[in-house]
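Students often ask what a holo structure prediction actually looks like on paper. The answer is less mysterious than it sounds. You provide the chain, you provide the ligand, and the output is a string of discrete structure tokens encoding the 3D arrangement of the protein together with adenosine-5'-diphosphate.
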Amino acid sequence: MKKIGVLTSGGDAPGMNAALRAVVRKALFEDIEVVGIYQGYDGLIKGEFELFELGSVGDIIQRGGTILRSARSPEFMTEAGRQKAADNLKAEGIEGLVVIGGDGSFRGALELSVYGIAVACVPATIDNDITGTEFTIGFDTALNTVVEAIDKIRDTASSHERIFIVEVMGRDAGDLALWAGLGGGAESIIIPEEPLAVNEVVERLKQSSERGKQHSVIVVAEGVMSGDKLSQLLKEEADVETRVSVLGHMQRGGSPSARDRVIASRYGARAVEELQAGQQTVAIGMRNHQIVAYPLQDVFETKDCLDMEMLKLSKELSI
Ligand SMILES: Nc1ncnc2c1ncn2[C@@H]1O[C@H](COP(=O)(O)OP(=O)(O)O)[C@@H](O)[C@H]1O
Ligand SMILES: O=P(O)(O)OC[C@H]1O[C@](O)(COP(=O)(O)O)[C@@H](O)[C@@H]1O
Ligand SMILES: [Mg+2]
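The corresponding structure tokens follow.
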């Protein structure tokens, strides 16, 4: 392989820059030319290409967001869009593409491979919702951001003896809510993977109040319902007063944690190695502390389950 491309796509995640740096530096180390593609799949269709050098990715390992910028591209969802993207890549002599993004971006990459472009996908999303890998880039940083926020909210919750609802990101995935809830000692955690039982939340609040604890933190993943909606439900069904904090897009920003930088560097380099070895459709990830490469199709054939033992444990510990 003589020339590869690299892009970032979908929701940005802290550590995408570190992964980009690794892809570029590893490729150049292996004497492979590397082209940065701006704005995700939109840039692939528009031909927003730039030949990268060692210095192109200098001073970015510590920066959040992505210098390549990201996009959600409706045009790439069409066959005509993907054909144009593949034509642009071939015209540039690009034989392989590293896609740094989430599950949607991985699906797009699989669709692109049909046109004879080799693809290696690097998991980067704060949702941590990609089958086949235990960790995605950005999850650790976002988790620490959320736990820090919960700690601060807990200070005011206990001072005023109030019940707080903290709404965190996660459209379909509860990883962030579950890990942050356990790490932040939340009294209740509400995630898409477990049906919501408002009466269970109310019961826990009641028990805790009877034991003399008047403050509580409830973490809810936005995919289940908004914090405001939950607040309204608790008021209507149990006359419980709450305050709501919506953490929003601050969860996606900030300098990546050391852990995210390390996994990003390892994933990015491995993606280049896989393309160099002739893999056509591959996903990179981590299992039992080992970096692994596995068939991209596997991501869509099954769905990794959340560790529900963690939810059970959080209930046992936060009484
Ligand atoms: N089924 C698909 N076919 C082709 N492209 C897709 C498909 N699903 C997603 N994509 C592309 O990937 C982009 C990013 O996906 P999205 O789900 O928004 O983010 P993420 O990759 O973070 O999950 C989409 O905007 C679209 O261009
Ligand atoms: O930035 P947007 O378009 O509002 O999207 C918000 C969504 O993006 C995420 O932050 C990341 O999801 P993706 O990785 O699928 O892009 C979700 O947690 C959140 O629900
Ligand atoms: Mg996604």
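The chain has eleven helices and eleven strands.
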